[in-house]
Amino acid sequence: MSTAPSNGKTAQSIATKVRVDPGSIDKPGSLDKPGSKPTAKAKPKMSAEQQKHYVVMGIAIAVVLGVGASMFFYFHKPATGGEARLNDPTDKVIEFINTNEFDKLDFDRKKLWMMQLSSKKREILEMEKSGKMNRKQLENVLAIVWLGKQFKHSEKYNSLGDLDRKDMLDGILDDNEIERQTRKKGDPEPDKKRVHELEETFPGYERNQISGFRQALKDREKERKNEAHKIRKGTPPARGATRPTSRPGERPATVTPGARPATPK
Question: How far is CA 227 from the centre of its chain?
Answer without folding.
Answer: 39
